[in-house]
Amino acid sequence: VESAFTDVDAPAHKNPSSTQQKIIELREVTQRVQVSLTVSFLGCQVELPEFSRTVDDRGNEVVFYVVHVCLGRRKWALNKRYNNFSDLDSNLRLKYANLPKLPAKTYFKLKTNEQIDARRAQLHAYLQELVNRPDMRTNPSFRTFIEIDEQIPES
Fold it and tell me: pLDDT digits over 110-128, tens only?
C-alpha cells in the first residue's frame, strides 16, 4: 500500500507532486471502501427455514418462502415467491456464467407440503452458494434481493 505521507527531510525529487499525492489518497480511500464492503458482507448468513401459504387478492393460493438474513447483529426476514428467485437468477446469469443451479420451474403447481418443502431446501442450497461467492458482495441484484442496503444503508 502506498503511503499518503511524505518524508519532510527527503529530497524534493522524491516527494510526490500534488497530483500524485491526490492519486495516492484516492487509492487509499478506494481500498478502505472495498475493505469495508467486504467486511460488512463476510458474516452474512441466509437461511430458508420455512414457507407459508396464503391467498392472494384473486383468491389463488400462493407460497412464500421465508428468508432469514443475518449480518452482524442485524437480522431480518423476507417473504419471497419462487418468481423472485427466478428473476434474481435471470439477472445474475446475464453477468456470471458459473452459478449454482436454480430449482426448475414445475409444469404443475406444487400442492403438497412435502413438494414445497423439497423446493424450499433446494432454494436454501441455491442461496447458500450465492451468499458464499465473493462476487455477490457488490452485485446490485443480489443485494436488492436480500434487501441489505435497505436494512443496513451504510454497507
Answer: 889 999 999 999 999 999 9
